[in-house]
Fold this protein.
Amino acid sequence: MVHGQPLPPARLPITDISQWVEGYSSMAATLTSRHPKKAWELLAYQAQIKEGREELEAGRWVGPLPPAVLAGGPGQAEIYAGPI
């Protein structure tokens, strides 16, 4: 507290996907300047997040997968379309 007033947050909250993409792109650019071989991984993660958001907006998001599906082995999570 400064003079009885709370300090402002160190970071502004991210309230939509465009803010997240902008911040993530800045972070990825900084990291790839030192680690250029990581660029593909960072961009792939960004694309995955954007695709997930599109699925959510389109109403195709089913939420987290049940543990039984995740334990089913490779490929099980990708084909799951049942209820949560």
